[in-house]
Amino acid sequence: MTDFTRQQKINDFVRQNQRAYTTTLTISLLVSNSIKTIRNCMESLQPLLAQVPSELIIVDTVGPENSDGSLAIAEKYADKVVHFKWCDDFAAARNAGLKEAHGKWFMFLDDDEWFDDVEELVAFFNDKNEQKNFFALAYNQYNYADTAGSSYKINEVTRCSRIWKNLEFIDTVHERLSPIYSPIKYVNSFVHHYGYARNLNNHKSERNEKLLKNLLAQNPQDMHAWAQLIAGFDKHTRAERDKVIYYSRLALENWKTIPVKNNKDNVFAISSLGYMLMCYTLEKNWDEVLKLCKQYIPTIKLRNYDLCILDSYAFTALYQKNSLNNLFPIFDEYLTNFMHIQQEKQALVRQYTPFLAERVSYAILFSMANIIIKLYLDNENWSSIEQLASRLPLNDGIMSSPETTTLLLTACTKTNSSRILQILFDQFSQDNDLSKMNKLAKFINNFKNKLSIADLNNLNQQLTLINSSRNPYLLLQQAEINQETPAGKLAWRKLQKHSLTCQPPFEDLLLIYIDRQLNPNELVAGLNYDELLELVSSISDKYSRKVNQIPDFITKIEKCWKKCPQRELLLMTLRRNYILSNQILLENVKNQLKPYIQNTLSFAHTIYRNELFTDKPSIFLPAEFQFALYLDKALKALDNEKQAAYFALLKAALEIYHPANHLIKRLIANFDLQQKKDIQNQQEFQQLAANIKIKIRALIAGKQQQAALPLLKTLADIIPNDPEVTKLLQQIDK
Questions:
Q1: Distance CA 408, CA 369 (A)
Q2: What is the DSSP code (8-state) at residue 143?
Q3: Which neighbouring-strand residues pair with 160?
Q4: Which residues pair with 23 in a beta bridge?
Q5: CA 419, CA 425: separation in Å to the nearest integer?
Q6: What topology does CATH give the domain 3-199?
Q7: Residue pLDDT, tens place only, 247-300
Q8: What is the crossing angle of helices 643-656 and 661-701, to 10°?
C-alpha cells in the first residue's frame, strides 16, 4: 500500500466514524476525595489547556456534601462539572464525562495523577497535519509502589483517542476506552500516579477487590475481572502470595469452562497464570513453575507477548535448577518473540496489557542474554556469541545493560576475531546517532582500563581492524596504536579533518598530542568545566594501574604544554593520584608534594576569589583545595623546623580531606622515624666525641700536644660550643 492510499483510507475512516466536534481536545477526569493530589493534577494540565483549543470536564463522583475539598478546587479549573451518582461502575462514570465532550480528541486521567511535562502533547494537538496520521495517543504512566517515589513501574497507556461515534468506556473496574484503533501516536510525556502506593489510599485496593468479587459472583467467566483482582494483591508477603495462587487457580478453572474462548479470554487467563508463576518464583518453587508452563503453554492460544511472559519464568526456573542445556531453546524463543513485537510499535500495542509488562522488556531480555553469553564464554564458543550478538537489539537496549556490553567485550579479548566488535559498531552506526556511538566508545575506553596488558593489546588490535573510514573513534584507535605505520599516518590525516576536541571518548587525542610534543591547547580550549572534568577523570583512570609512570607523563606534559587552568587541573589530578598511592615509595611521593600543591592552588585561584585563601582556609573552598593549603603550610613549618606546627597542620589537613589518610600517616611515621634516627645518631656521635676527648687528654698528659692538636681542632669544628673542647684548646695554647 502506498503512503497516499494509506492516508486516503485513514481520511475515509475518520469521515465516516469521527463524532462531531467544536474544539480540539477534551480532558475529562473523575474527582473523588484526593485532596493531597488534586491541585498537582489541575496545575499540570494548565499549560496544555492554555496552549491548545480545549475543554476540561470534571465528573464529580462523591457529591459536594461528601467532598474533602477536592471538588471545590477542581471546579475553579473546570469548564464543565458533571455530577454523577456513584453506582460502583467506573465505566459508567467515565461515560458520563465522554457524553458531554465536544473535542476532536478525548483524554482521561485520575485526580491522583499529574503530568510532568506536556510539551510534546501541546506540539501534537497544535499540528493538524500530524493528527491526520493517528487515531489514538499513548503516553507513559509511572505507577509508584511507595509514597517516597523510589519504586515504580512504567506502563505505556493509551488514554487518548479520537472521539468515534461508537467510542465508550467498558469494564466496571479499571475501565478502558473501546474501541482503540491504530495507528497510535507515542509521546514521551508521562504522568506520576500514586493511587496505589503502599500506605496511601489503601482503600482503593479494598474497594476494587470488593467490586471485582461482586462482578465475578455474577459472571465467573469474566477473565478480565479475574486478572484485575489477582493483579491488585500485594504479593510482598506469603499470605498475599497464597491468595494470588488460590484465585489464579480459580480463574483458570473458570477459563476452562468457557465453551468458545475469544482472544481476550486467553490474554487475561495468561495474566492470571503469569501472576501465579510470579508467586511461585518468589517462593523459589521451581518445579511448580515448570509444571504450570508445561501444563498451559500447549492449551492456551498464545501471542508473542504471552510467550515472552511464560518463557521468562520458565528460563529462571530452569537456570535455578541448573538445567542449563534447556535454557538455549527457551531464550531463543523469548528473543524471537520479543523482536517480533518490538519491530513495529503498533504490533506491540495490540498485544500489550498492563499486566506483567516488566516481563516483556529489554531488562529481562538482556538478563537472560547475560546468562547465555556466560555459558558460551565458559565453553569458549565464540561463533555462538557472534551469532547471538548479531541478533540482539544492541543499539536499542545495550546501554541499559552494562553487563551485556562487558561480556561481549570480554569475549573480544579472548578471541583473535574482530567480528563481535564489528557487529557492535555496525549496529550503533545504523541510525547515524553520534551520541549513541560515543556512549559505546566511552564504555569501551572504561573497559580498557580494567584489562591486563595482553588483553588490552588484543582488543586494541581488533579495534584497528574494524572499518573506520567515517568513524572518528576508530580512526583515533588506528592513529594511536599504529602511529609509525602508513595506516596509522593515514588515519591521523583523516582524523584531523574532523576538528575534534579531546572530550571523551576522544581523550586519547590528548595523549597523542603530548606523546608527539604538540601543544594541546586547541583540543581543550572549547571544553566547558564539566567536559574538562570528564576529560581529566578519564585520563586519570587510564593511569590508575600504571601510577609509577605518572612522573614521566607529567614531564612530557610540562615540556609541551604551557601553564593554563586546564593543564593545572590535569597535573593536580595526576599528582594527587600519585601521592595518595600506596604503591609509590615515600621518597618519590615527597618529591611530588610541592608541585602538587602548586598545581592545586594555581587551579583553585582561577575559579575562586583570593579572599578565600586566608591563614585559615575558607569552608567555602572545596575540601581538596583546603587540604592543599594546610599541606603547604605544614611543609613550610617543617622547613623552618617548627615540629609542633608541622604535626598540627598535618592533622588539620587530614580532618578536611579523608582520602589523604594513608599519606598523612606515612608522613608522620616517616618524621618519627627520622627523629629516632637523629637521636640515635646524636648519641653515637656523643660517644665517639667522648672517646676522642679521652685520647686527647692522654696525649696531653704524655706531653704530646702537637699530636693532640689536629684531633682537637677537628673536634672543635664539629662541636664548636663544647666547653670541654674549648678548655683543652686553652691548655695546649699555654
A1: 11
A2: E
A3: 107, 137
A4: 103
A5: 10
A6: Spore Coat Polysaccharide Biosynthesis Protein SpsA; Chain A (3.90.550)
A7: 999 999 999 999 999 888 998 999 999 999 999 999 999 999 999 999 998 888
A8: 170
101 CB-near residues (< 8 Å, 6+ apart): 26, 28, 55, 57, 163
Residue 620 phi, psi (nearest 5) = -80, -10
Pairing relationship of beta strands 103-110 and 80-83 according to DSSP bridges: unpaired
Bridge partners (DSSP) of residue 168 are 178
Please list the residues that pair with 105 across neighbouring strands.
25, 162
Give the max Cα distance, the chain. 139
Report how far apart, in Å, the C-alpha atoms of 73 and of each of 61, 63, 68, 337, 646 are.
Answer: 14, 13, 10, 48, 67
Residue range 388-432, pLDDT digits in tens: 999 998 876 555 678 999 999 999 999 988 999 999 888 887 767
- Mean pLDDT for the chain? 88
CA 79/CA 422 separation, integer angstroms = 59
What backbone torsions phi and psi does residue 158 show, to the nearest 5 degrees? -100, 90
3-state secondary structure 168-217: EEECCCCCEEECCCCCEEEEEEEEEECCCCECCCCHHHHHHHHHHHHHHH
Q: Which three-class secondary structure string do you get for 434-489?
A: HHHHHHHHHHHHHHHCCCCHHHHHHHHHHHHHCCCCCCHHHHHHHHHHCCCCHHHH
CB 148, CB 199: distance < 8 Å: no
Residue 134, Cβ neighbours under 10 Å: how many? Answer: 20
237-261: pLDDT as tens digits: 999 999 999 999 999 999 999 999 9
Q: Which of 386, 390, 374 is nearest to 417 (CA)?
A: 386
Q: Could you write out the DSSP letters of every residue in 313-334?
A: HHHHHHHHTT-GGGHHHHHHHH
d(CA 185, CA 187): 7
d(CA 476, CA 495): 7
Geometric angle at alpha carbon 258, from 269 and 175, rounded to 5°: 50
Rg (CA), the chain: 38
Contacts of 158 (CB under 8 A, 6+ apart): 136, 137, 138, 177, 180, 184, 349
Between CA 14 and CA 167 the distance in angstroms is 13
Q: Partners of 103 in the beta sheet?
A: 23
Pairing mode of beta strands 152-162, 80-83 = unpaired
Residue 99, C-alpha cell as written in the block: 457524553
Give φ, ψ of 531 to 5 degrees: -65, -40
Q: Answer whether residue 42 shows pLDDT above 90.
A: yes
What number of helices (H) and strands (E) belong to the chain? 34, 10
Cα angle 149, 154, 156 (rounded to 5 degrees) comes to 145
CA atoms within 13 A on the CB side of 558: 13
Residue 651 neighbours by CB distance under 10 Å = 14
389 or 619, which is more confident: 389
Cα–Cα distance measured from residue 513 to residue 340, given in angstroms and rounded to the nearest whole number: 48
Residue 239 parent element (H or E):
helix 238-256
Instruction: Identify residue 51 by its one-letter amino acid code.
Output: Q
